[in-house]
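Justification of resources, computational component.

The compute hours requested in this renewal are based largely on the per-chain cost of generating structure records like the one below. Each record pairs the submitted sequence with a full structure-token output. That output is archived, and it is also reused by downstream analysis tasks.
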Amino acid sequence: MTDYLPKLATIEQACVWLNERTGKDWSLARLLEYGLMPWVWLEHAPGYPAIFGDRLEGYLAPMVFGGDTNRLAAGGTDALITMTRTGDGALMRINPGIPAPLSELRFKREDIEALAARSGTPEKKAPHGHGVPKEKIIDGFSLDNKNWLDLPAHPNSDGKHYKVIDLKQAAKALKRTKAGVMLLVAQSKLTAFVMARGWKGNAFPIRDKETHWDVGTAENFPDGSEIRILDCRETGESFSVRTFNACQMWALCHSNSYLLAIGHSRRIDADVLAPIDGQDFHLKHPECAPWKDFYFLADEPHLVTWNDLWFDEDEIQAIEHSAASGAPESNEPPPFHPRVGWQKALFDAWPAICKLYGGRQPTATEAIRYLQRNDDSGLIMTKTDGGSLWWIPQRGTAKEVTNKTVANVISQWRNEGALPA
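The structure output for this chain reads:
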């Protein structure tokens, strides 16, 4: 049974969690039928203070209009938001509406839990916002036939825009299959971007050598952000950083994009992002990123699929030009190197584990036992609890990885041919 439910759950996460709790089959249409409110992250657009106020990171906007949710319930392939609320709660009409793929819809954890807590079969009720409340409606903004994705690349970017295309368009431009485009991503020849919708976390500096950080919270703010203290175990450095919500266009770090590119499931739980312009972000938000070279680590992983990826059209054109010049290409992805601490420890120790067990494929239990006894990275704990693996991430709080999760990771690496010999 899946115990964890994200604070903002995707359609799939909400349905799986409710399936297990209620014994019923749940779908998007049923979620809406039982009154759950869908939400979408609305990125900041310069020049609309009445809508965004001082929320430079954007805000989570509810789908309050029954017409919008009814369209979804009827089997729409995408959401269209024609009415929502401003950052200050005022009802707002948007013309012609903001499109959003279903992968970007979110449901609040407390709403899902309340639905599951109802005794017996939950009682159906009208969806949130059925019709329009009798209150003043302000006119929002018109996109004027512009692509909603053509927005500032990160908060407070002073209108800097990026022209992006999706995977299908990239494949057409490069005259490749989608898998061929993703091979370029795996080879670090093409950057894969995602539209982050308020991923909370904090920045970490990029160093030439691998570093481990102990993280503690020093102060909490009313807006939900925190001041965190980062202490480097190797160098003794200490930094104070403020958490923030990563919004709009960010690059997937190669540790995440590689797995997405070569994986058979075409989906991963991503948590590491890179800024498009780290120097610019550093200058404008030094309290969040005291360095110009940094990466962003989300507090919680977020589901990313091939359908969520975007690519810079200028970068695509540069690859086209290189191909036209006859430059040789490789059809092989680069060697795989995991980034998550416990996975790196397992990956590096895999040859020794196999040698210990006579060259056969060890089980997850055997792999965990080996790491508990032999790991010298300081990440793996000797704690044993029901066969789980316990490790210490950068945030400093011990985390449990179940035996099943370890087995699934080993199986995924084996299927992708990523396990070291």
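The chain has a mean pLDDT of 78. The radius of gyration is 23 Å.
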